[in-house]
Write a structure and sequence with these properties.
The complex is a heterodimer of chains A (about 400) and B (about 100). Chain A has about 400 residues and is α/β, with parallel strands linked by helices. Chain A is built from 15 helices and 16 strands. In chain A, the strands form 4 sheets. A 7-stranded mixed beta sheet of chain A has the order 4-12-11-10-7-5-6, sandwiched between helices. A 4-stranded mixed beta sheet of chain A has the order 1-2-3-14. In chain A, strand 1 and strand 2 form a beta hairpin. In chain B, helix 1 crosses helix 4. Chain B has 4 helices and no strands. In chain B, about 50% of the residues lie in helices and about 0% in strands. The chains are: A alpha/beta (about 400), B mainly alpha (about 100). The interface between A and B is medium-sized, with 17 and 14 residues.
Chain lengths: ~400, ~100
Amino acid sequence: MTENATATVERADLFAKFDPIIQTRETLLASGVEDPYNLVMEKVLSPTRAICNGRDTILLGTYNYMGMTFDPDVLDAGKQALADYGSGTTGSRVLNGTYQGHKECEDALKEFYRMDHAMVFSTGYQANLGIISTIAGKGDYIVLDIDSHASIYDGCAMGKAEIVPFKHNDIEALEKRLRRIPEGAGILVVLEGVYSMMGDVAPLKEMVAICKKYGAMVLVDEAHSMGFIGENGRGVCEEQGVIDDCDFIIGTFSKSVGTVGGFCVSNHPKFDIMRLVCRPYVFTASLPPSVVATAATSIRKLMHGSNKRAHLWENSKTLHRGLLDLGFELGTDEPQSAIIAVIMPDLQRGAMMWEALLKEGLYVNLARPPATPANMTLLRCSLCAEHSSEEVKTILSMFERAGKATGII
Amino acid sequence: MQPKPLRAKESEPLPMDPAAVDERIRTLIEPFNKKGVEITDATTFQNDLEFDSLTVMDFVAEIEDEFDVIISMNQQAEIENYGQLVAAVHKLQDS
């Protein structure tokens, strides 16, 4: 009896499934390159400069498109809210976690997008997770671009709808799938304005029109275009003239807005019920007062950011042209956004190039499968409106030296 | 012998029997079967044919276009081998 009580049963180690990833990582690090996923910024000097692993570094991989992170008005609003409302809400939006600042932040979003409803989530990831998993239920269909962000796929996996992917940015592939969906089933089509891996833009004008033809609701994730693309910075759907036909726009505060948080805006008359039925909204603590205060201030300033938008476009064009001229292979033939993806021959040489750039004093994102399309290794550059024209020239000379040193060009 | 029922429209294909579905998918899979693996009902897509996610997407799109059906990701998750695929497509084109 006592023997049985102390006997243990042998079971598989639950971590065994990660062995292939551990192996890939160890092989990469054994070659002596600096760990691309363990970078520490000891000091942040500005939206475009930091001390990284001890070196003064130009930041070209932060998604801080509009450079709002050190805007004096934004910082003042945050400090004031911290003093007035404390460091955190310690509660859900539907219980004790909605402060004046959360309402003001949602008001700023409604004005920014000229939409009737706005709902702020604790992160952009949760906004996609919550909205997608909640509005598409059993028997409904979600039709999505195959290159959709992880948060979109996770929202699909969390819900009970039928999931139908189509080939990236392929209008005909989208239409074929919509045509085949059984009559009577509800349809949500999920698109992104800018796809973050290659920095390419979706043909929203054509796609949204097709969605409407087949009676589908459309959700557009404008995470990488807010503040920058479109006359008022509302995104690719504004630029292409279809914002009024988009049922839901999802966005984030962690890119152009310069803090953290996510949101969904909509004109759907029943949209507010989401606050009660959307679990990733209900069952988590709301954003700290300082965060929503910085977000609201930043969003209002972005409404008047046309000069910054123009400079950011200049930066994007200069970098894109310069990298092509140096002989790098890029993700798009023309600059379509503030993201420029430089295609590397493989992970090993991509990591070498990444390290060479870091030693030059330049930080970019090393993106690798499975996050990338077609199993590519990418050096992903995201520009900032606060990069000076001189900095962009410096960046190009760093790419030239690192590219030659590693044999990429 | 009963005459075959007339199609409502000439453009509307008749549902195929399992053998015809099998034959059609066998032809479609050829360009994706890079290693020339022998296809039986038990042949798995992941282990035997070593399809990665991109190959799966292209292959599924070919089948969807050929049979004018949707094979959702939820359904794909239930299909591990060739025999299951033929059965699933046969069932889908009937519905």
